[in-house]
Amino acid sequence: MKTQIFIVLVLCFSSVSGQVKISGVVNAKNGELLTGVNIYIEGSYNGASSDENGHFEFTISDEGEMDLVASFIGYQTWSGKIDASAPVKINITLLESVNTLDAVTITAGAFAVEDKKRASILDPIDIYTTASSNGDVMAAMRTMPGAQAAGDDGRLLVRGGDAYETKTYIDGLLAAKPYYSKTPDVATRGRFSPSLFEGVVFNTGGYSAEYGQALSSVLVLNSTGVDTENTAGLSLMTIGAEANYTKAMKNSSAMGSASYMNMGPFHKLVNSYIDWTKPVEVINLTSTYRNKPSAAGLLKAFATYERGDMAYRIPNGNYDAIEIENKGNNGYANVSYRDAMGEKTCFRTGLSGTYENDGIAVAGNHIETLNLTLEARFTMVHELSEKIVLTYGISNTYTDYQQTITPPELLAIDFQFTDHTMGTFAEAEIKFSKYLAIRPGIRAEYASLMERANLAPRLAMAVKTSKNSQFSAAWGRYYQNPVNDYLKFNADLDFENATHYIAGWQAGSVKNRLFRIEGYYKNYQKLITWEGMNEYYPQNISNSGFGQSAGIDLFWRDRKSIKNFDYWLTYSFVDTQRKYRNYPGAATPGFISNHNFSAVGKYWIHKITTQVGASYTFASARRYDNPNNRQFMDGRTGWYGDLSLNLSHIFFLGDQYSVLYASVNNVLGRENVFGYRPSGIADAQGNYTLIPVKQDTKRFFFVGLFLSF
Fold first, then answer.
1. CA gap 420, 452 in Å, rounded
2. φ and ψ at 266, to 5 degrees?
3. Nearest one of 466, 474, 570 to 508, comparing CA atoms
4. Helical (H) or strand (E) element with 139
5. Where are the strands (E) in 407-512, listed by range?
6. Which of 50, 167, 230, 415 could form a disulfide with 56 if both were Cys (CB 3.0 to 4.6 A apart)?
7. Predicted confidence (pLDDT) per residue in 214-236, tens digit
8. If you compute the radius of gyration of the chain from its CA atoms, what whole number of angstroms results?
9. Exposed / middle / buried, residue 228 (Cβ in 10 Å: 0-12, 13-18, 19+)
10. How many other C-beta atoms lie within 10 A of the C-beta of residue 686?
């Protein structure tokens, strides 16, 4: 026993006598003493934190050369060699990091959620609980600045641009048909459920060189990751039903859902401006698979298919109503994978496919369209240093288009073409400090059908003006192939293009209050024009069009002033004219309202676990062409107004929450008119009867019970 005690005492004495003191002071480059800096020997537990005077001190028992490390949030990690054969006293100077949480971020044109480099604006819950959205991603985005109210269209119309100028991406891969089929006088809606996504980036202009083939904007939807719990859901709604099941496994999960929608019962209860002979009926099947093979790796697979049909008659003055019928089978699938290739390099790759098989009959014209769009994409991201991140990649979009048009009592006309649009890009984000960042980029594309190429330079920058405010700006060229409806007639066309100029300022925090103002100017060149009165048979198609769009967007969101109350306000002004389609000269398009305003509010009542919401949308008068007058597009509609209300009551079944949801759109029953369509035949005096284009119904009622198990 004495021998054992002796050995222990010897070891303790040796340890104490061999200890070496490490001490010093930590300060910033400007001389400020830093408190709470973590200083330690790399690969060991030996270390200490600096006190209020920046001083630190600790002892070690090892001797020799070793690495000393100092780390502190908001500053670059410091490391240096020390010789611990004798006491060490050292002064450490830390440099500010350019990647701190309060550093400048490039946000020109971007409204994002779940992207930590940008301000979060809307999340999936926001989309579901926005009273006017009815669970439609696209409808919720229309409450953002820069978007038109578009109650008669349903698609995104951004900063003076037509609907085809906005592209949708899911996990970075093209979704070529993000809406249900659009038919005359009936608004469409987005095909994808908000619950599939955890992040939304709505870019109203000046977007990254990673994306092309969009003149105005891109909507990037980032899907959810691996689910960790088994869940089942059943939704019973006034317009249909849905069932889903999620299976969680080790490092992976799978989900399947099926839904059925039928608007027939609703139209029996509510009078419609349109005479429905076959109300909308849709069957949808969706599945997802997620797998996380490593800490950085993530595989995502997503597929959806729907079959739907509808038929209706729209008024045509004193003449027979116009018969419209639409039947379609559409599918979308994508597979994406991302992983790391070392500590500072990662890659993203994937493949998406959109299948469209639509049959539309309009006034006796039968149009059968079969369109397959495939996109493959590969992207690399290198962190060259703390200040420079380089992103580059390639993509190829393949289109196989077939269409048959059968006019009344005439032979069918067939169209067919294939195209490869190949793109490559490179972009660097350079942070000179946490107060200044720039993002130069360039994109090149080649379209095989037109046998033409383009080169699109882009530049964005941001300057921090205070702790919670910054100025952002962007400039860039954007190209887009003419749409299939023109390429099928004439492949000898050129890219349409637009140049964006954007500048804006934002202040505050999205967690509390956020204000944003942004101005822009777009210059359009080589827009598609054609001659004639029938868009199904255009004549002399060319790139002789042009246009401009200028405006200002305002956004304000407040989550702090009133407890349990969240609201946002948006206002957009746009002044735009263009010569395109069969316009005789430059004019403001009929889908444009110069002034758009939205107010969205939500209040949570904790005692009854219920949220009540309201949204109001205003849009100024729109133009329309009155063929009875000489001047083109000289008609004006009235202003548009919509007050919508909703209620969400949350309750639990076991340990899973369920929701009872109810909403009413256009509560006040305003008679909104979006334009006037001339009758097909003039009277004896050569005048046409003007038929107002209205909402399908004055009010829309929805009740849903969403159960989780």
1. 11
2. -65, -45
3. 466
4. helix 137-141
5. 413-433, 436-447, 452-466, 469-480, 496-508
6. 50
7. 999 998 888 888 888 888 989 89
8. 30
9. exposed
10. 8
Q: Given the structure tokens 């008024």, which residue do they identify?
A: 315
pLDDT tens-digit series, residues 267-304: 888 888 888 999 999 999 999 999 999 878 899 999 99
In this structure, the dihedral spanned by the alpha carbons of residues 599, 605, 611 and 615, taken in order and rounded to 10 degrees, is -20
For residue 164, what is the DSSP state? G
d(CA 296, CA 278): 50
| DSSP secondary structure letter of residue 195 | G
Residue 119 has pLDDT above 50, yes or no: no
The tokens 């003055």 sit on which residue? 317
d(CA 440, CA 455): 14
Q: Is the dihedral of CA 626, 621, 128, 505 positive or negative?
A: positive
Spatial contact of 587 and 549, defined as CB atoms under 8 Å apart: no
Nearest alpha carbon to residue 216 among 516, 544, 589: 589
Half-sphere exposure of 96 (CA within 13 A, CB side): 16
- Using DSSP, state whether 266 is helix, strand or coil: helix
CA–CA separation, 229 and 425 (whole Å): 39
Residues in the chain: 709
Token code pair at residue 205: 């202009």
- Alpha-carbon dihedral sign for residues 650, 651, 653, 657: positive
336/301 Cα distance (integer angstroms): 7
Q: d(Cα 292, Cα 298) in Å, to the nearest integer? A: 5
Q: Cα separation of 73 and 139, whole Å?
A: 40
Give the whole-angstrom CA distance, residue 106 versus residue 462. Answer: 5
> Over the stretch 447-482, which tens digit does the pLDDT of each residue have?
999 999 999 999 999 999 988 899 999 999 999 999
User: Which candidate, 591, 492, 590, 583, places its Cα nearest to that of 535?
Assistant: 583
Q: What residue ranges in 224-364 does DSSP mark as E strands?
A: 231-237, 240-249, 252-262, 275-291, 298-314, 322-340, 345-362
Q: Which of the 8 DSSP states describes residue 42?
A: T
Q: List, in order of start, the domains of the chain with CATH numbers.
A: 19-94 (2.60.40.4130), 110-708 (2.40.170.20)
| DSSP per position, 479-494 | EEPPPHHHHTT-S---
106 pLDDT band, cuts 50/70/90, is low
Single out the residue of 299, 180, 195, 173 nearest to residue 244, CA to CA: 195
User: Residue 647 has which token pair?
Assistant: 């209620």
The whole-model pTM stands at 0.83
- Tell me how far apart the alpha carbons of residues 367 and 407 are, in angstroms, rounded to a whole number: 9
Helix (H) or strand (E) holding 7: helix 2-17
Sign of CA dihedral 215, 637, 362, 305: positive
Model confidence band, residue 38 (pLDDT cutoffs 50, 70, 90) = confident
Residue type for 528, please? I
Q: How far is it, in rounded angstroms, from Cα 465 to Cα 461?
A: 13
Distance CA 105, CA 461 (A): 8
Q: Write the CB contacts of 176 (distance below 8 Å, at least 6 apart in sequence).
A: 354, 356, 371, 373, 375
Distances (CA, A) of 458 to 150, 532, 650: 30, 37, 46
Amino acid type, 2 = K
Spell out the alpha helix ranges (H) of 242-288. Answer: 264-269
SS3 of residue 40 by DSSP: strand
Q: Which residues pair with 40 in a beta bridge?
A: 47, 69
Residue with the two structure tokens 């929608």: 261
DSSP string for 595-654: EEEEEEEEEEEGGGTEEEEEEEEEE--BEE--TTSSSTT-EE---EEEEEEEEEEEEEET
